[in-house]
Amino acid sequence: MPLDNFRIIESTLREGEQFVGASFTTAQKAEIARLLDAFGVECIELTSPLASPQSLADAKAIVALGLKARILTHVRCRIEDAKVAIDTGVDGVDVVIGTSSLLRQFSHGKEMDEIIDTAREVVSFVRDQGVAVRFSTEDSFRSAREDLFRVYEAVDAIGVNRVGIADTVGVATPRQVYELVKELRGRVKCDIEFHGHNDSGCAIANAFEALDAGATHVDTTVLGIGERNGITPLGGLIARVYASNPALVHKYDLPLLRKIDGAVAQMVGVDIPFNNYITGITAFTHKAGIHAKAILNNPETYEILNPQDFGMTRYISIAHRLTGWNAIKNRAEQLGLTLSDEKIKAITEHIKAMADERQISLDDVDGLLRWVNNGHALPESAAVTT
After folding, report:
1. Which structural domain range is residue 315 located in?
2. Any bridge partners for residue 1, and if so which?
3. Does residue 112 sit in the same domain as residue 84?
4. Is 250 among the residues known to form the active site?
5. Quick one: DSSP state of residue 231?
6. What single DSSP character describes residue 233?
7. pLDDT tens across 45-89, in order?
8. Which residues, other chains included, contact 13 with Cβ-Cβ below 8 Å and sequence gap of 6+?
9. What is the DSSP string of 340-375?
10. Rg, Å, the chain Cα set
11. Are residues 142 and 247 in the same domain?
12. Of the candidates 277, 241, 248, which has an alpha carbon nearest to the alpha carbon of residue 260?
Protein backbone atom coordinates (compact mmCIF):
# COMPACT_ATOMS: atom_id res chain seq x y z
CA MET A 1 0.00 0.00 0.00
CA PRO A 2 1.47 3.43 -0.97
CA LEU A 3 0.82 4.95 2.49
CA ASP A 4 2.92 2.39 4.34
CA ASN A 5 6.06 4.53 4.45
CA PHE A 6 4.86 8.12 4.01
CA ARG A 7 6.90 10.94 5.51
CA ILE A 8 5.99 14.38 6.79
CA ILE A 9 7.84 17.53 5.83
CA GLU A 10 6.70 19.86 8.60
CA SER A 11 6.74 23.41 7.28
CA THR A 12 5.46 25.50 10.19
CA LEU A 13 8.87 27.21 10.26
CA ARG A 14 8.66 28.01 6.54
CA GLU A 15 5.12 28.06 5.15
CA GLY A 16 3.73 28.69 8.64
CA GLU A 17 5.87 31.79 9.02
CA GLN A 18 3.95 33.21 6.06
CA PHE A 19 0.75 33.19 8.16
CA VAL A 20 -0.38 36.75 8.80
CA GLY A 21 -0.16 36.36 12.59
CA ALA A 22 3.23 34.63 12.68
CA SER A 23 6.38 36.44 13.77
CA PHE A 24 8.39 33.74 15.49
CA THR A 25 11.37 34.62 17.63
CA THR A 26 14.46 32.43 17.50
CA ALA A 27 13.48 30.89 20.84
CA GLN A 28 9.97 30.15 19.57
CA LYS A 29 11.35 28.54 16.43
CA ALA A 30 13.60 26.34 18.54
CA GLU A 31 10.63 25.36 20.75
CA ILE A 32 8.52 24.46 17.71
CA ALA A 33 11.37 22.50 16.14
CA ARG A 34 11.96 20.51 19.33
CA LEU A 35 8.25 19.71 19.69
CA LEU A 36 7.96 18.58 16.08
CA ASP A 37 11.10 16.49 16.46
CA ALA A 38 9.72 14.86 19.61
CA PHE A 39 6.46 14.18 17.76
CA GLY A 40 8.50 12.33 15.17
CA VAL A 41 8.19 14.23 11.90
CA GLU A 42 10.83 13.11 9.45
CA CYS A 43 11.74 16.56 8.10
CA ILE A 44 11.48 20.18 9.29
CA GLU A 45 11.50 22.87 6.62
CA LEU A 46 12.82 26.36 7.35
CA THR A 47 12.29 29.77 5.78
CA SER A 48 14.82 30.68 3.11
CA PRO A 49 17.99 31.99 4.76
CA LEU A 50 17.96 34.73 2.12
CA ALA A 51 14.68 36.16 3.46
CA SER A 52 16.48 38.31 6.07
CA PRO A 53 19.64 38.33 8.20
CA GLN A 54 17.63 36.90 11.10
CA SER A 55 16.29 34.10 8.89
CA LEU A 56 19.88 33.15 8.08
CA ALA A 57 20.85 33.19 11.77
CA ASP A 58 17.73 31.20 12.71
CA ALA A 59 18.47 28.52 10.13
CA LYS A 60 21.94 28.03 11.57
CA ALA A 61 20.50 27.96 15.10
CA ILE A 62 17.95 25.24 14.23
CA VAL A 63 20.64 23.16 12.51
CA ALA A 64 22.77 23.47 15.65
CA LEU A 65 20.03 21.89 17.82
CA GLY A 66 21.10 18.45 16.63
CA LEU A 67 17.57 17.13 16.08
CA LYS A 68 16.72 13.69 14.71
CA ALA A 69 14.54 15.22 11.98
CA ARG A 70 16.27 16.21 8.76
CA ILE A 71 16.49 19.99 8.45
CA LEU A 72 15.57 21.46 5.07
CA THR A 73 15.32 24.96 3.70
CA HIS A 74 13.36 26.30 0.76
CA VAL A 75 14.92 28.64 -1.82
CA ARG A 76 14.50 29.90 -5.35
CA CYS A 77 15.99 27.78 -8.12
CA ARG A 78 19.19 29.79 -8.31
CA ILE A 79 22.82 28.81 -7.75
CA GLU A 80 23.38 31.86 -5.55
CA ASP A 81 20.46 30.95 -3.28
CA ALA A 82 21.54 27.32 -3.10
CA LYS A 83 25.05 28.32 -2.00
CA VAL A 84 23.71 30.34 0.93
CA ALA A 85 21.36 27.51 1.90
CA ILE A 86 24.12 24.89 1.84
CA ASP A 87 26.35 27.08 3.99
CA THR A 88 23.80 26.97 6.83
CA GLY A 89 24.51 23.26 7.29
CA VAL A 90 21.04 22.00 6.43
CA ASP A 91 20.51 18.37 5.39
CA GLY A 92 18.58 19.28 2.28
CA VAL A 93 17.84 22.19 -0.05
CA ASP A 94 14.37 22.51 -1.57
CA VAL A 95 14.46 24.56 -4.77
CA VAL A 96 11.33 25.86 -6.49
CA ILE A 97 10.37 27.69 -9.66
CA GLY A 98 7.00 28.65 -11.11
CA THR A 99 5.85 26.76 -14.21
CA SER A 100 2.32 28.07 -14.81
CA SER A 101 1.85 30.57 -17.63
CA LEU A 102 0.85 33.18 -15.05
CA LEU A 103 4.03 32.82 -13.02
CA ARG A 104 6.23 32.55 -16.09
CA GLN A 105 4.78 35.81 -17.37
CA PHE A 106 4.42 37.82 -14.16
CA SER A 107 7.06 36.32 -11.84
CA HIS A 108 10.37 35.24 -13.39
CA GLY A 109 9.77 35.60 -17.15
CA LYS A 110 11.43 32.31 -18.16
CA GLU A 111 10.28 29.92 -20.88
CA MET A 112 10.16 26.17 -20.21
CA ASP A 113 13.42 25.33 -21.96
CA GLU A 114 15.21 27.90 -19.82
CA ILE A 115 13.47 26.58 -16.68
CA ILE A 116 14.66 23.04 -17.48
CA ASP A 117 18.23 24.22 -18.06
CA THR A 118 18.21 26.17 -14.80
CA ALA A 119 16.73 23.23 -12.90
CA ARG A 120 19.44 20.88 -14.21
CA GLU A 121 22.17 23.35 -13.28
CA VAL A 122 20.95 24.01 -9.73
CA VAL A 123 20.07 20.39 -8.94
CA SER A 124 23.47 19.22 -10.16
CA PHE A 125 25.24 21.86 -8.09
CA VAL A 126 23.44 20.99 -4.84
CA ARG A 127 23.82 17.26 -5.41
CA ASP A 128 27.56 17.69 -6.04
CA GLN A 129 27.93 19.36 -2.64
CA GLY A 130 26.70 16.18 -0.97
CA VAL A 131 23.42 17.75 0.10
CA ALA A 132 19.98 16.28 -0.62
CA VAL A 133 17.98 18.27 -3.16
CA ARG A 134 14.33 18.59 -4.03
CA PHE A 135 13.10 20.30 -7.16
CA SER A 136 9.51 21.58 -7.14
CA THR A 137 7.37 23.35 -9.66
CA GLU A 138 5.15 26.12 -8.32
CA ASP A 139 1.48 26.40 -9.31
CA SER A 140 1.70 22.87 -10.69
CA PHE A 141 -2.02 22.42 -11.30
CA ARG A 142 -2.25 25.47 -13.54
CA SER A 143 0.80 24.33 -15.50
CA ALA A 144 0.70 22.28 -18.69
CA ARG A 145 1.21 18.60 -17.89
CA GLU A 146 3.68 18.11 -20.69
CA ASP A 147 5.79 20.95 -19.24
CA LEU A 148 5.69 19.40 -15.77
CA PHE A 149 6.74 15.97 -16.97
CA ARG A 150 9.55 17.38 -19.09
CA VAL A 151 11.17 19.17 -16.18
CA TYR A 152 10.55 16.39 -13.64
CA GLU A 153 12.03 13.76 -15.95
CA ALA A 154 15.02 16.01 -16.65
CA VAL A 155 15.94 16.41 -12.97
CA ASP A 156 15.17 12.78 -12.19
CA ALA A 157 17.65 11.73 -14.85
CA ILE A 158 20.48 13.61 -13.10
CA GLY A 159 19.76 12.25 -9.63
CA VAL A 160 17.40 14.62 -7.83
CA ASN A 161 16.31 13.15 -4.49
CA ARG A 162 12.74 14.34 -4.66
CA VAL A 163 10.40 16.23 -6.96
CA GLY A 164 7.59 18.37 -5.63
CA ILE A 165 4.08 19.06 -6.82
CA ALA A 166 2.60 22.27 -5.43
CA ASP A 167 -1.07 23.21 -5.47
CA THR A 168 -0.01 26.77 -4.77
CA VAL A 169 -3.45 28.39 -4.99
CA GLY A 170 -5.57 25.48 -3.73
CA VAL A 171 -7.32 24.92 -7.05
CA ALA A 172 -6.87 21.15 -7.40
CA THR A 173 -9.46 18.49 -6.70
CA PRO A 174 -8.61 15.13 -5.10
CA ARG A 175 -9.16 13.37 -8.45
CA GLN A 176 -6.79 15.75 -10.24
CA VAL A 177 -4.13 15.23 -7.57
CA TYR A 178 -4.43 11.46 -7.75
CA GLU A 179 -4.21 11.39 -11.54
CA LEU A 180 -1.19 13.71 -11.74
CA VAL A 181 0.76 11.94 -9.00
CA LYS A 182 -0.13 8.52 -10.40
CA GLU A 183 1.21 9.40 -13.83
CA LEU A 184 4.31 11.07 -12.39
CA ARG A 185 4.99 8.00 -10.24
CA GLY A 186 5.23 5.99 -13.45
CA ARG A 187 7.68 8.46 -15.00
CA VAL A 188 10.25 9.13 -12.24
CA LYS A 189 12.22 6.97 -9.82
CA CYS A 190 12.82 9.63 -7.18
CA ASP A 191 10.58 10.49 -4.22
CA ILE A 192 7.52 12.68 -4.76
CA GLU A 193 6.39 15.47 -2.42
CA PHE A 194 2.96 17.11 -2.31
CA HIS A 195 2.35 20.66 -1.08
CA GLY A 196 -1.33 21.62 -1.03
CA HIS A 197 -2.99 24.90 -0.12
CA ASN A 198 -6.46 24.98 1.41
CA ASP A 199 -8.16 27.85 -0.42
CA SER A 200 -11.02 25.62 -1.55
CA GLY A 201 -11.02 23.27 1.44
CA CYS A 202 -9.36 20.26 -0.22
CA ALA A 203 -5.88 20.29 1.32
CA ILE A 204 -6.28 17.21 3.52
CA ALA A 205 -8.15 15.19 0.90
CA ASN A 206 -5.63 16.20 -1.75
CA ALA A 207 -2.69 15.21 0.44
CA PHE A 208 -4.24 11.83 1.16
CA GLU A 209 -4.92 11.20 -2.53
CA ALA A 210 -1.34 12.17 -3.35
CA LEU A 211 -0.08 9.53 -0.93
CA ASP A 212 -2.52 6.95 -2.22
CA ALA A 213 -1.27 7.60 -5.76
CA GLY A 214 2.37 7.07 -4.83
CA ALA A 215 3.69 10.29 -3.28
CA THR A 216 6.19 9.72 -0.49
CA HIS A 217 6.16 13.07 1.34
CA VAL A 218 3.48 15.58 2.37
CA ASP A 219 4.06 19.16 3.54
CA THR A 220 2.11 20.19 6.65
CA THR A 221 1.95 23.02 9.17
CA VAL A 222 0.59 23.08 12.69
CA LEU A 223 -3.09 24.09 12.55
CA GLY A 224 -2.63 24.46 8.79
CA ILE A 225 -1.26 28.01 9.11
CA GLY A 226 0.40 29.58 6.09
CA GLU A 227 -0.13 31.93 3.19
CA ARG A 228 -3.84 32.90 2.94
CA ASN A 229 -5.83 29.87 4.21
CA GLY A 230 -2.68 27.84 4.72
CA ILE A 231 -1.87 24.25 3.78
CA THR A 232 -2.54 20.71 4.95
CA PRO A 233 -2.71 20.78 8.78
CA LEU A 234 -0.49 18.34 10.63
CA GLY A 235 -3.35 17.11 12.84
CA GLY A 236 -5.73 16.84 9.91
CA LEU A 237 -3.34 14.67 7.92
CA ILE A 238 -2.74 12.46 10.95
CA ALA A 239 -6.50 12.09 11.48
CA ARG A 240 -7.12 11.20 7.85
CA VAL A 241 -4.35 8.59 7.69
CA TYR A 242 -5.36 7.19 11.11
CA ALA A 243 -8.92 6.74 9.86
CA SER A 244 -7.52 4.64 7.02
CA ASN A 245 -5.28 2.54 9.28
CA PRO A 246 -4.22 3.58 12.80
CA ALA A 247 -1.01 1.55 12.51
CA LEU A 248 0.26 3.96 9.84
CA VAL A 249 0.64 6.82 12.34
CA HIS A 250 1.75 4.96 15.46
CA LYS A 251 5.31 5.97 14.57
CA TYR A 252 4.39 9.46 15.82
CA ASP A 253 3.90 10.60 19.43
CA LEU A 254 0.19 11.25 18.93
CA PRO A 255 -0.62 12.64 22.42
CA LEU A 256 1.92 15.41 21.78
CA LEU A 257 -0.37 16.94 19.12
CA ARG A 258 -2.38 18.77 21.76
CA LYS A 259 0.70 20.49 23.17
CA ILE A 260 2.00 21.34 19.69
CA ASP A 261 -1.31 22.85 18.57
CA GLY A 262 -1.63 24.82 21.80
CA ALA A 263 1.90 26.19 21.65
CA VAL A 264 1.68 27.40 18.07
CA ALA A 265 -1.84 28.80 18.54
CA GLN A 266 -0.57 30.92 21.42
CA MET A 267 2.46 32.10 19.45
CA VAL A 268 0.41 33.30 16.47
CA GLY A 269 -2.46 34.72 18.53
CA VAL A 270 -5.33 32.42 17.54
CA ASP A 271 -7.58 29.97 19.35
CA ILE A 272 -7.62 26.31 18.41
CA PRO A 273 -10.88 25.99 16.41
CA PHE A 274 -13.66 24.23 18.33
CA ASN A 275 -13.92 21.65 15.53
CA ASN A 276 -10.20 21.21 14.98
CA TYR A 277 -9.06 17.73 14.05
CA ILE A 278 -8.28 15.75 17.21
CA THR A 279 -7.49 18.69 19.51
CA GLY A 280 -10.64 20.82 19.11
CA ILE A 281 -12.78 21.10 22.24
CA THR A 282 -15.69 19.29 20.57
CA ALA A 283 -13.65 16.70 18.67
CA PHE A 284 -14.77 13.86 20.96
CA THR A 285 -18.00 15.39 22.33
CA HIS A 286 -21.32 13.58 21.83
CA LYS A 287 -24.72 15.17 22.44
CA ALA A 288 -27.71 13.50 20.74
CA GLY A 289 -29.40 10.80 22.80
CA ILE A 290 -29.13 8.04 20.21
CA HIS A 291 -25.45 8.85 19.74
CA ALA A 292 -24.80 8.76 23.47
CA LYS A 293 -26.48 5.39 23.91
CA ALA A 294 -24.44 3.81 21.12
CA ILE A 295 -21.19 5.41 22.30
CA LEU A 296 -21.73 4.04 25.79
CA ASN A 297 -22.28 0.56 24.36
CA ASN A 298 -19.43 0.71 21.84
CA PRO A 299 -17.45 3.90 21.09
CA GLU A 300 -16.69 2.76 17.54
CA THR A 301 -20.34 3.36 16.59
CA TYR A 302 -19.72 7.11 16.35
CA GLU A 303 -15.93 7.51 16.63
CA ILE A 304 -13.49 6.79 13.82
CA LEU A 305 -10.65 8.07 16.02
CA ASN A 306 -9.94 6.62 19.45
CA PRO A 307 -9.41 9.61 21.76
CA GLN A 308 -7.17 7.59 24.07
CA ASP A 309 -4.61 7.15 21.27
CA PHE A 310 -4.23 10.94 21.25
CA GLY A 311 -4.21 11.40 25.02
CA MET A 312 -7.75 12.77 24.86
CA THR A 313 -11.05 11.73 26.47
CA ARG A 314 -14.56 11.65 25.09
CA TYR A 315 -17.31 13.75 26.66
CA ILE A 316 -21.03 13.06 26.57
CA SER A 317 -23.07 16.24 26.85
CA ILE A 318 -26.29 15.65 28.82
CA ALA A 319 -27.61 19.03 29.98
CA HIS A 320 -30.00 19.74 27.08
CA ARG A 321 -33.30 18.76 25.49
CA LEU A 322 -31.70 16.16 23.20
CA THR A 323 -30.37 14.06 26.05
CA GLY A 324 -31.28 10.38 26.45
CA TRP A 325 -31.90 8.29 29.53
CA ASN A 326 -28.90 6.05 28.91
CA ALA A 327 -26.61 9.06 29.13
CA ILE A 328 -28.34 10.25 32.32
CA LYS A 329 -27.98 6.76 33.80
CA ASN A 330 -24.28 6.78 32.96
CA ARG A 331 -23.89 10.13 34.73
CA ALA A 332 -25.69 8.81 37.83
CA GLU A 333 -23.29 5.85 37.90
CA GLN A 334 -20.32 8.24 37.61
CA LEU A 335 -21.66 10.06 40.68
CA GLY A 336 -22.04 6.77 42.58
CA LEU A 337 -25.84 7.06 42.77
CA THR A 338 -28.26 4.12 42.74
CA LEU A 339 -31.42 4.90 40.82
CA SER A 340 -33.85 2.57 39.05
CA ASP A 341 -34.35 2.78 35.31
CA GLU A 342 -37.86 4.11 35.93
CA LYS A 343 -36.53 6.97 38.04
CA ILE A 344 -33.76 7.70 35.52
CA LYS A 345 -36.35 7.90 32.72
CA ALA A 346 -38.52 10.24 34.77
CA ILE A 347 -35.53 12.44 35.58
CA THR A 348 -34.61 12.50 31.90
CA GLU A 349 -38.05 13.77 30.93
CA HIS A 350 -37.78 16.45 33.61
CA ILE A 351 -34.37 17.52 32.30
CA LYS A 352 -35.80 17.85 28.79
CA ALA A 353 -38.64 20.00 30.11
CA MET A 354 -36.18 22.15 32.07
CA ALA A 355 -34.05 22.62 28.95
CA ASP A 356 -37.13 23.74 27.00
CA GLU A 357 -37.66 26.47 29.60
CA ARG A 358 -34.07 27.72 29.94
CA GLN A 359 -30.44 26.87 29.40
CA ILE A 360 -29.32 24.35 31.99
CA SER A 361 -25.94 23.16 33.19
CA LEU A 362 -24.35 19.91 34.29
CA ASP A 363 -24.71 21.16 37.87
CA ASP A 364 -28.48 21.32 37.34
CA VAL A 365 -28.50 17.72 36.16
CA ASP A 366 -26.28 16.53 39.00
CA GLY A 367 -28.40 18.37 41.56
CA LEU A 368 -31.56 16.75 40.26
CA LEU A 369 -30.00 13.28 40.30
CA ARG A 370 -28.82 13.71 43.88
CA TRP A 371 -32.19 15.17 44.93
CA VAL A 372 -34.09 12.13 43.72
CA ASN A 373 -31.42 9.74 44.99
CA ASN A 374 -31.92 11.23 48.47
CA GLY A 375 -35.57 10.22 48.40
CA HIS A 376 -37.19 13.42 47.21
CA ALA A 377 -39.86 13.60 44.52
CA LEU A 378 -39.26 15.42 41.26
CA PRO A 379 -40.39 19.05 41.30
CA GLU A 380 -43.86 19.49 39.82
CA SER A 381 -42.66 22.31 37.57
CA ALA A 382 -39.66 22.22 35.27
CA ALA A 383 -38.97 25.80 36.31
CA VAL A 384 -38.23 24.71 39.87
CA THR A 385 -34.62 23.82 40.69
CA THR A 386 -33.52 21.48 43.48
Report:
1. 285-373
2. none
3. yes
4. no
5. B
6. B
7. 999 999 999 999 999 999 999 999 999 999 999 999 999 999 999
8. 24, 29, 32, 33, 44, 45, 46, 47, 62
9. -HHHHHHHHHHHHHHHHHS---HHHHHHHHHHHHTT
10. 26
11. yes
12. 277
